Amino acid sequence: MATKTDIQADLATIVEEIAGIPASQVQPEKQFIDDLDVDSLSMVEIVVAAEERFGVRIPDDDVKGLRTVGDAVDYIERASAA
Amino acid sequence: MSFDLDPGLGARHTAILGLGTYRPSRVVTNAEIVEAIDSSDEWIQQRSGIRQRRFATPEESVQAMAVAAATTAIERAGIEPAQVDAVIVATVSHLLQTPAVATAVADELGLQRPAAFDISAACAGFCHGLAIASDLVRGGSSTYVLVIGVERLSDITDRTDRSTAFLFADGAGAVVVGPSDEPGIGPVVWGSDGAQFDLIRQREDWRDVVASDDPRMPHLVMQGNAVFRWAAFEMAKIAHAALDRTGIGVDDLDLFVPHQANLRIVDAMARSLGLPPHVAIARDIVDQGNTSAASIPLALDRMVEDGEAKSGDMALLIAFGAGLAYAAQVVKVP
To answer: B212: Cβ–Cβ under 8 A, 6 or more apart, which residues?
Structure first.
């Protein structure tokens, strides 16, 4: 069972690989679009990579609700516990 | 009296014998597109990789562009026009539905009354046509088949739609498929997902347009992010399946020529496939836009012109689009 810290670290690596944003900047309070400059297509790629990494399913309708890195970490934690 | 319904068999192997294209004359920059969609050159390039596209003039009709591309393809195939015995046109933008534009194209080319028909598989049309043509030749129904992908998407694009106005464009590409001593067209991996019919579609039925108080062209509409997810990831699996059917690994490939839907899709697919650095990747979309059924032959022809592709190279083609229809195969460059 992955902890919040593990999820945060792995997600930061994914964001760095796909969007080129240093993992150290991928902090829970950061907004994907406004703070990290991740556009909607990169967001789709990040979501798909996260699905594979964490073995969860994140439907398109739920992606819109993931505004911050923290939102995504919480979502993945809940989804992987389910 | 005896009967024989066995049609026999055709050629053991097939190949693309010649490739021709037609790029419309009018270059349309992003600057010309942005005002109607309240956007910028920078946003369009970041979102799609597109710097410019080409729109057909009124004289550059679907038929005219198809004939121009086909003429070159037949010349390069080294056959006489009269040897072509089937014509398949893949298009969604020939707005006179009946008869098939393939029949008029065949006549204008001076062909000898070949079988001629259009297919509707949208952006996947070229690879569908290629698969059908190869099987016609292998099955013995035809000997030389002309396959043409041609579009005038500018006619059916809403210039004020932020999700499509900068993407769609016009053009034509054609190949001659015929018998070959060596296999040159691999097995097709194809299918569709009609549950996602609405993701890319003509906005409404023609009958609803006619019945409307404000009749307007039923433009193409698209749910961009959902299409991106499907294309970038599900289609990479189909591309892999097409390789698996042939036993060819990514290391054996020379070229990757996906439908030029969006540079972001091309790049994401290439990443998903894990293509090694020596594989040249088609990026014709940057200067040509998304030309639907015409995009793969246009992209391959540019790679040949630029010296990125040479005769005998092994190319992975994959086309995908509305339907959601898709088709992929490995071919040898003519």
So the answer is: none
pLDDT digits (tens, 9 = 90+) for A55-65: 999 988 899 89
Q: Active-site positions of B? A: 123, 259, 290
Interior angle at CA B43, CA B38 and CA B48, nearest 5 = 120
Chain A nearest CA to B87, separation (Å)? 38
Question: What's the rounded Cα separation, in Å, for the pair B294 and B31?
Answer: 24
Taking the CB of residue A72, how many other CB atoms lie within 10 A of it? 26
Q: How many CB atoms lie within 10 A of CB B57?
A: 11
Write out pLDDT tens, residues B82-109: 999 999 999 999 999 999 999 999 999 9
For chains A and B, CB pairs below 8 A equal 22
Q: Which CATH number applies to A4-81: 3.10.20.600, 1.10.1200.10, 3.40.1190.20, 1.10.10.10?
A: 1.10.1200.10
- Entry pTM: 0.93
**How far A33 CA sits from the closest chain B CA (Å)?**
14
